[in-house]
Design brief:
By secondary structure, this protein is an alpha/beta fold. The chain is built from 19 helices and 16 strands. The radius of gyration is 22 Å and the shape is globular.
Length: about 450
């Protein structure tokens, strides 16, 4: 065995580009600032090329049972694995969450976990497969983007949005399992993660409830656009939704605009108010000081996503919603000034006034990156190399299949390509906002994979 004394790079996969990339790029910049290079790019590309990347610290975006094979391959190749759950803020009921999103084979590969806050730490440490991996309450880089010192990062985009739409109402849809871009393929893929009849029953009933809610929400959007024809309404479907469902509704309505352009933060910053049901964007909006309305024509203690709804103003009927929206369309909404962060969020999101969540994460990872560690054995590396490349070949074959989760169309919707000059532009905006990262740059090392490092 050989001791590796050089700093190990970070490897940061991104699944949903518009949702994750900016936050994870910020983490990559913090890493590079400390002299630790970071590879960032499309998750599927990184997985398929993992055997060609240097051994490093892989930041997994979850530890469900379906991830076990890939994480074991990475360990055989000599990577260390840390993780956070991208969906760890708005959770399923704890027993269901443990079964659906925590797999024994995956958890065993993870050396440490970064928790959104105290609540997630308790949920994770109570899972039946927990083996003592250290859980760090750091918060998440996505919350960094909502801090006052980083609002300017999106100034130009907010100005562009307002230039096109003027004053507008933002509606965020989060019905990826009801308005499915891949139809039954999505449900089948999710159902495969269930292991007990109780969870299968919960899953089936949850999908049925969310589907009923989706059609009521869908109806509301059209009625609202008709009720306020002089007001622009911008609707952002979840990246996994079928955008054509919304486009058909919007086609005859000049004031209804369906967009999936970029991160949601500038769209929240530019909006007069936002409407949702159980969407994490409501938490982001509240942290930005925006008015959030939860439209709840039906409710379920078991199946609703409570945290986003609980911190929003609730409207149970369309008439109630009209009464809430009308002042914003007439310019008579009261200006209440900056809103306080709801205390309930302290249990869910760790916040340090002095440090970004990205800095808190790197305080942990820097020690591991610079510490001498034993690499994998040669036989394990050879086996890992073969396994990684055989897996990549299988995913490549599936990319030609229609309506497959690895189809080229679906992958493009998840991760629209980003040019290197755009990545460099975003780094420059971080530099301007924070006065940091002056010597940090990016270059493309493989298609959809960038190396962020010091010049």
């Amino acid at each position: 065995m050989k001791l590796n004394m050089s700093p190990k790079p970070l490897i940061i996969p991104v699944e949903q580009q518009v949702r994750e990339f900016d936050a994870k790029l910020l983490l990559a910049c913090v890493s590079a600032e400390r002299g630790i290079p970071a590879y960032i790019g499309f998750q599927n590309r990184i997985r398929n090329r993992i055997a060609a990347l240097p051994r490093g610290i892989f930041i997994a975006k979850g530890f469900g049972a379906t991830k076990a094979t890939m994480l074991k391959i990475m360990r055989r190749l000599g990577h260390q694995i840390f993780a956070w759950d991208e969906e760890g803020l708005v959770l399923l009921p704890t027993p269901i969450y443990h079964e659906m999103r925590v797999g024994k084979g995956s958890v065993e590969q993870v050396q440490g976990v970064f928790a959104w806050g105290p609540n997630y730490r308790k949920v994770f440490e109570s899972n039946p497969f927990y083996g003592g991996a250290q859980v760090h309450e750091t918060g998440n880089p996505r919350v960094d983007l909502l801090r006052p010192e980083l609002r300017a990062f999106y100034d130009a985009k907010v100005e562009d949005i307002r230039g096109i739409y003027g004053s507008y109402i933002l509606i965020n849809s989060s019905f990826g399992l009801s308005n499915m871009v891949l139809g039954e393929k999505t449900v089948e893929h999710k159902r495969s993660a269930t292991r007990s009849p109780a969870t299968a029953k919960f899953w089936a009933e949850s999908v049925a409830y969310r589907t009923e809610l989706f059609w009521l929400f869908f109806e509301m959007v059209g009625k609202l656009a008709d009720r306020f024809p002089e007001t622009n309404i911008v609707l952002r479907p979840h990246p996994s939704e079928n955008i054509e469902t919304w486009n058909k509704m919007a086609a005859p309505r000049d004031n209804l605009h369906v967009v999936q352009d970029g991160n949601v933060v500038p769209w929240l910053l530019g909006a007069d108010l936002a409407i949702h049901n159980g969407c994490m964007t409501a938490i982001e909006g509240v942290l930005l000081g925006k008015t959030e309305i939860a439209y709840q024509p039906i409710t379920s203690e078991e199946f609703d996503r409570h945290l986003p709804n609980d911190i929003s103003q609730s409207c149970a009927t369309f008439d109630e919603l009209v009464d809430c929206v009308a002042p914003y369309t007439q310019g008579t909404a009261p200006n209440a000034g900056p809103k306080q962060r709801p205390e309930i969020l302290d249990e869910f999101i760790t916040h340090d006034e002095r440090k970004l969540a990205s800095d808190l994460i790197m305080d942990v990872l820097e020690n591991f990156s610079r510490a001498p560690t034993r690499t994998t054995t040669l036989p394990a590396m050879i086996g890992g190399w073969w396994a990684a490349n055989i897996r990549a070949l299988g995913k490549w074959v599936r990319s030609f299949k229609k309506n497959d989760i690895y189809s080229a169309h679906h992958q493009h919707q998840q991760y629209p390509p980003i040019a290197v000059h755009e990545v460099q532009n975003r780094i420059a905006r971080f530099q301007a906002s924070l006065g940091r990262f002056k010597n940090v740059t990016a270059r493309e090392v493989m298609p959809d994979i960038f190396l962020v490092s010091r010049r």
